Amino acid sequence: MNDRLRVAGLTTFGLGFMRPAPGTWGSLPPCGVAWLCALAAAPAGLTHALLVVILLVFSAACVVWGAWGEKRFGRKDASEIVADETAGQCIPLMFLPAFALDGFWAASFTIGGAFVLFRIMDIIKPWPAHGLQRLRHGWGVLVDDLIAGLYAAIVLQIVVRYIVPLVINAAP
After folding, report:
1. Which domain does 101 fall in, by range?
2. The whole model's pTM is what?
């Protein structure tokens, strides 16, 4: 296997080498894809399919090449490995209602909210995410970010589906 391909996959095409906060850089590609799809008024099914593909590709990179990446970068869950953030960020961006992505401002607010919520959840690592980092190799790198994505998705869905409509309907 070509080492360049492994490095590209694990670092999300080099974003893991960006400073500061490489995990933040690694979280951006799914947001960019979702935002471009929203602005292009792409069908929701296409947006979901693209996010699922990104989620699966970068999850597979973590699992398949994670042990190699730990050796290559000299430590467990090295900051250069951001494929886990790329995969995890896809989760809160999926299955959003159409009105949340309809138009520039709605899409920007919703996708920006997904980004911020995911980064918060990834940093604080709520239960059981933190403990699952002990899993071996790529699984330990990946699973905590998938859980952070799930927590961010739950919060975002509540805000977009229930709180935003309440605020809009309460406006004079």
Report:
1. 3-170
2. 0.89
